[in-house]
Design brief:
The chain is globular and about 50 Å long. Helices cover about 75% and strands about 0% of the residues. The N and C termini lie far apart (about 40 Å). The chain is built from 5 helices and no strands.
Length: about 110
């Protein structure tokens, strides 16, 4: 199980850098209510989680006794679907800004 933990840690580093480091400097932009804020925020989250699943896939693909490791890429399709749904739904009031949701969860009284 140590290899699985190592794969997770290697995949988590870019997610952490994007969602905690880069997003911190973009907070005035991503906490807005405009389409640009929604796009930048959800792009950061989609890239970060997509990168996490891709690096996880690469880590398990290196093991010769595992087959069909492409199943680790399937969540990327769901991420892209939600990403597109947010942009398509924005004019109808259905777009969710991921940064605003996370900030509400973190700083709710």
């Amino acid at each position: 199980w140590l290899y699985a933990f190592d794969v997770h840690c290697n995949a988590f580093v870019p997610l952490f850098v994007l969602l905690y480091g880069v997003q911190f400097f973009l907070l005035p932009l991503v906490l807005g209510t405009s389409l640009l804020s929604l796009g930048v925020s959800n792009s950061l989250f989609a890239i970060a989680f997509g990168w996490y699943f891709y690096i996880t896939h690469l880590g398990y693909r290196a093991l010769p006794f595992l087959s069909h490791t492409e199943v680790f890429l399937f969540p990327i399709v769901v991420i892209l679907g939600i990403y597109v749904f947010n942009f398509m739904g924005y004019p109808f009031g259905v777009g969710w800004n991921a940064s605003r949701i996370i900030a509400y969860i973190y700083f709710e009284n």
